[in-house]
Amino acid sequence: SNTTTESVTADVSVFVGSSAPAVGAVVEKSSVEIPQQDSVDLRLADLTDGGPVVSIAVEVVDSGGVMVDKIVSGPTGVARSACSTDGSGSWVVPSGSTAPGARHQLVLFNPFPDDAIVDVDFVADAGSREPEDLTALHVPARSSRLVEIGDFVAAAGTVSTFVEARSGRVVVEAIQSFDGSADPLGLGLIAGVPAPAETWTFAGVAPRTGPARLVAINPSDTIVRADVEIYPAGAERFIEPLQLTMRPGQHAVVDLLADGRLEGIPSFTVVVRSFDGPRLVVGLEQRPPEPETGPLAELLETEAPATGFAGSAGQALESVSLMTTIDVAEGDLTSALHLFNPSDDTFVTVEALVLGEGASRPVTLEVG
């Protein structure tokens, strides 16, 4: 997506990887012209013959204001995520599941000219795991590797993944799917987080789309205490914060809708704030509602969610300028943009610019 008023060219490199290290793999390259204030869709099947995993690098020369998103689809659903903008030697994937019917995959992508050697560890329901086969894992230059987390952490309802590079840098993402045999069908992309932070914000959570839970991780070597603050949209209602205490390397799971305290609230913002400095990583999972069962189930009219499962890390920083991409059909009443003002005593005026098909439309909002 090109938010500028000039046409730009993007170079697209496609890397085909697998579970084995790919030394000297062929990188397929192409270029695409993106018109001003418009978007271009690229179907990866048209750019490569494919493989067990495909990674993409998009480089825009001499221009800013370009966003790149990835959409995947399959028999279990549809998922979307924003692309990472840099590599790192340290990553955390906050959440995932290897429970029966679930598949959790880790992608380690090295688009750089130097090899990377990484260690992959996990924290699951039953404690930490440091698999020998994932110690000093080789990710060759300009290649990617796929790790089936279920091969190392079996039947875990919650898995947090830690990637630490001994040398080099990588980009990390996880793919989560549910085949419908236990949890409802679902597919999600969960981006890795390169660094812990003091505050994590999830601007919009809507209970009607299904159960929501936080997974907070303490990757540091000291105890971390944190508050989970909840702000209902457009309401003066006060919600008592939840308190968390996590030992080093521990994660905590918070079911946001379990105790009924958010009953009747259509949407809200969640802020997780550490009292002990930038030593926290927080993810949010939202799964589809459980289907109704019993003799009245056939009489109930319920809409199945389009994506089935969503997982993401929060935003660690507020900003005066933000960009996002969304597909909205005419007459769509289910898509929403959530804006949160973290200030205690100041109103914020927001100038939003909606772009598409070469045109723009301004919108002005005031957020308390």
Detailed description of the structure:
By secondary structure, the chain is mostly beta strands. 0% of the residues lie in helices and 44% in strands. The protein is built from no helices and 24 strands. It has strands spanning 8-17, 27-34, 53-60, 69-74, 77-82, 90-93, 102-110, 116-124, 127-129, 137-139, 143-148, 159-167, 171-178, 186-191, 199-205, 212-217, 224-232, 242-246, 251-255, 268-274, 281-286, 310-313, 348-356, 359-367. The strands form 7 sheets. Strands 6, 8, 9, 10 and 12 form a 5-stranded antiparallel sheet that branches. Strands 11-7-13-14 form a 4-stranded antiparallel sheet, with no helix packed on it. A 4-stranded antiparallel sheet has the order 15-20-17-18, with no helix packed on it.
Mean pLDDT: 88
What class, by secondary structure content?
A: mainly beta
Low-confidence stretches: none
Order of helices and strands: EEEEEEEEEEEEEEEEEEEEEEEE
- Portion in beta strands: 35-45%
The share of residues in helices is: under 10%
User: Treating each run of at least 4 consecutive H or I residues as one helix, how many helices?
Assistant: 0
Assign an overall shape. Answer: globular
Oligomer: single chain
* Major β-sheet profile: 5 strands, antiparallel
Q: Which value, in Å, is the CA radius of gyration?
A: 21 Å
Q: Compute the separation of the termini in Å.
A: 30 Å
